[in-house]
Design goal:
mainly beta; globular
């Protein structure tokens, strides 16, 4: 960063520190109970540690919650859910994570990708925008039956657990 007023960098003047952040801090801010061992190349966080930004090949893994509910709307609650993108902005206060740049989320036979994926845990919504492609696998008769795969592309998708619906929009 360029040094300016009183010897401070632009990040310091803006109130943003850039320093090493432990993986546990990302997990706490993102609301995950476990994470992949591969840390993001660059982490930036505000002084109050409520907002965290990660840039590079960002990957997080959300382990099944102890409450039994899913950690990501539209996905199951019995196994880990993986996220990947070029950037992540996790806001602990808003309980929201924004994955941008070739964002992906997947769990077992289910996956969703788009230019941006927003996980809003308070609103119990997962929103994807920009060249969205989803693939969901069901086994209607149990594990021994042939799976039924549904693949849909659209400009955007909102998975709303509160209302129990998924809404695809534009170019479906």
């Amino acid at each position: 960063d360029e040094v300016g007023e009183e010897g401070k960098t632009a990040r310091e003047r803006a109130g943003v520190a850039q320093e090493p952040v432990e993986r546990a801090a990302l997990d706490e801010l993102h609301g995950v109970e476990g994470s992949s061992p591969r840390p993001a190349p660059r982490l930036v966080h505000g002084h109050d540690c409520r907002v965290l930004q990660a840039r590079g090949d960002v990957r997080t893994v959300s382990q099944p919650g102890s409450t039994g509910g899913s950690t990501a709307p539209g996905f199951g609650s019995r196994s880990a859910i993986s996220f990947q993108a070029r950037t992540l902005v996790a806001d602990q206060k808003a309980d929201r994570a924004i994955y941008s740049g070739a964002a992906r989320v997947w769990q077992e036979g289910n996956s969703l990708q788009g230019e941006e994926i927003v996980l809003d845990r308070l609103g119990r919504q997962l929103r994807a925008t920009g060249n969205v492609m989803s693939r969901f696998t069901q086994r209607p008769g149990g594990p021994a039956t042939k799976p039924v795969v549904t693949a849909i592309t659209a400009a955007s998708l909102v998975l709303d657990d509160a209302q129990g619906v998924g809404r695809y929009r534009d170019h479906v």
